[in-house]
Amino acid sequence: MGDCINTEIRDALPDLIHERLDTRARARVEAHVAACSDCAAELALVRRAASVLALGAPRMDAQRIAARLPTGAHARREVQPIFGRPRLYQLAAAIVLVVLGAGVVRMTLQSGNEPEPVVAGGVATPVSGIAMVGGIEALTSDDLATLVASVESLEAVPTTEPEPLQLTSYDLGQGEAAQ
Amino acid sequence: MRERHVATGDEATDLALIDQWKNGDTLAATRLVERHADALARFAVSHGEREEIEELVQDTFVRAFGSLASFRGESSLRTWLFTIERRLILDRRRALRRARVTVPADEHSALTEMTPLDSVIAEETEERVRVAIDRLSPTQREVFTMRVAEGLSYAEIARIVGTTEGAARVHYHHAMRAVKEFLENG
Question: I need a surface site. Which of A103, B83, B155, B159 has the fewest CB within 10 A?
Fold first, then answer.
């Protein structure tokens, strides 16, 4: 039994018996096999080998196997992890808000009687009930949940014309705002 | 770059059944097992396993269903199942070696192991084909079986055994040549 030099056809022989070829490819392979004794012999061998391999294994009891499998409820609980992507974006937004807020608080404390800076782009909703002491690592899970809720309550589009942005710089030695 | 896997009709059915199972349809699990259990049994036998085949198949499905929520369909479900089962077979062999239990030497000595099922195979030609396949090296037999018995593509085979598509193709053709030579020369 020789090997046909057409490796493309030889590679396709298992696909032929498993019906994985489209109509055109199937016709091409069958036409070649009809004209090539080597490929015809190899195709017969592939069929016989597939039959032998199928006979060599015991049949499985699908009902018995399926009865011991976990239910889909197990999967449903897993598909919505708390740190799934929507939650992750909200958490990231909350972290940015905290960092900005901490910066505003620090600037306010340093300036003393200075007017509160205006937040450009709309209304800054104050976050109540959270002590801005220390960094983000000081926040508890409840604090983070409150921040996330605040982020969710923010409007995406400002409802009023944004106030002009006032840029301030501080000379720490003199405590005066430069304009 | 790995080719993006496009679901065929059969695979679309698997994905639909997985979705149904996630939504609590237990019959969908039975359907999935029916679709793939026998193939997993053949895969186990092709790797020289002869005992507790159903337990091995059961363990494969338990592992698979335990992480089915994370199955993204990047490969076919059957390819994924074969990958899991292959790891279980290797783990089983390592455990047997640690326990100093003789592993059934099916890699090379299936010639002397005649199971009751063998007697069903009446045709001498079929028996010789089986012997020829059993004489292949483990890797050649693994690739040859997946290609011939399951019709897996070289890309799928490469993913399961952890090699390249080109290497899988070479293993297959070397195996085919070895089988032909045995049948011609005895």
Answer: A103
